[in-house]
Amino acid sequence: MNKENFRTMVVDDEDSFLLLMTRILRDEGYTVKGFHNPAEALAALVSFSPALVITDLKMPGMDGVAFMREVKKQSEADFIMITAFATVESAVAAMKMGAADYITKPLQNPDQLRIAARKIFERQELLNENILLKSGLDAGIPSLDTVFAGMEDVRKAVQDVAPTDATVLLLGETGTGKTLISRIIHQLSGRKGLFVDINCAAIPDNLLESEMFGHEKGAFTGALSAKKGRFELADEGTILLDEISEMSPALQAKFLRVLQDRTFERLGSTVTLKTGARIIAATNRDLKQMVSEGRFREDLYYRLNIFPISIPSLRERVGQIQLLAKSITEKISRRLGREIVGIAPDSLEEMKRYTWPGNIRELENVIERAIIVSRGSEIRVALSTPVSQFSAHNSKAEGHDLKSVEKEAIGNALKKSDGNRKLAAAELGISLRSLQYKIKEYGLK
């Protein structure tokens, strides 16, 4: 979390003490607003959206405990109570209401306030990290030799750009490993923040802005509490915007501003936040063509296209199928608790002839399915889907290009499943999301 985004509200009816506290906290790098009474602070609560509230316990009109009770109805901010009238009863009341800390005035040393605020700042950082870990956003990474097998030019580009803060644009078909390569860039960068990703195609337009930038309580129907967006969670780390081509024109304009000056606001807030996140965008579309068709902003395209990396499809590196399949088999076997020693030789040969429209993701699906149904230590893969009837060689000989082969295979799978997309995706060995992209791309129903 950027310290400037750690907004702190200080409420005290003594002018001199209020000035002292705000000065100490601003010197620490936090964004601070001071208020002379709870009524003023409550009026600014939604627009300022504090992460921390520091309040005097004894104030005219409304005491600190009553003030905290009102704030808790609208905010998840942490509290520090400050008073010159410290008693066991008041301390217990404040802690029961959820105060994170309790210190007395006059301050014996400015470090009392600095340390108390820093503890809460660090705790919130840890909570943000736990949210991402529970969401599975911090997955492990296989060896680089395996990931970049047959892609030495991609490996070099990744190693060159990773230590910089340059925006990266990853180009490649669905399932080629763009997310994994994004994680590797983050890992090699040494950035202290987290890796966060967001799929622009998987989230409805009306929710994507909230997911990216966060929202305040009441910003829209269903916003029952304030929520941090992915740009806040990724601060000082890396954010991947997958399928950037699917972002609506209105949101493209807002995202352009983030690229230009690294600032944004939560929905329902007028407070400008800063992000130190490194931005990676990924797409399986031709953005330049989309620009010429008026479907993607030209200025955004040039902002994103600083360091493009094209990731080849799996069929372009079939010589590495054996190495990739071995690594994937070992990984999935460990996860499923199975003792698999390898893949049957005839299955490997069939895998080398297959066109792999779903790329690495399809390879993983096929191998996992084979491991699940296997009864021995060696697996056999079943590539009996309509797509597997066509090898790259055969499709050329019959006058088909790859896209027509892929379109025909998807159409056959949909027909076979009576239009059930979930069954068709399983039949093809690709994810449902990948199938939906292809249906849209080819105008299938």
What can you tell me about this protein's structure?
Mean pLDDT is 84; it is low at 133-139 and 384-400. 38% of the residues are buried. The protein folds into three domains: 3-120, Rossmann fold; 144-310, P-loop containing nucleotide triphosphate hydrolases (Rossmann fold, 3-Layer(aba) Sandwich), CATH 3.40.50; 315-442, Orthogonal Bundle (Helicase, Ruva Protein, domain 3), CATH 1.10.8.60. The strands form five sheets. It has a five-stranded parallel β-sheet with strand order 2-1-3-4-5, with helices on both faces. Strands 7-10-13-6-14 form a five-stranded parallel β-sheet. Strands 8-9 form a two-stranded antiparallel sheet. The protein has 445 residues and is an alpha/beta fold. The protein contains 21 helices and 16 strands.
Strand order of the largest sheet: 2-1-3-4-5
Radius of gyration based on Cα positions? 27 Å
Shape, principal axes of CA atoms: elongated
The CATH architecture of the largest domain is 3-Layer(aba) Sandwich
CATH third-tier fold name of the largest domain: Rossmann fold
Number of helices: 21
Structural class: alpha/beta
Number of strands: 16
Distance between the termini: 45 Å
Q: Provide mean pLDDT, rounded.
A: 84
Helix amount, in percent? Answer: 40-55%
Task: Report the sheet-strand fraction.
Answer: 5-15%
In total, how many domains does the architecture comprise?
3
Unreliable residue stretches? 133-139, 384-400
Summarize the main sheet: 5 strands, parallel
CATH superfamily membership of the largest domain: P-loop containing nucleotide triphosphate hydrolases
CATH C-level of the largest domain: Alpha Beta
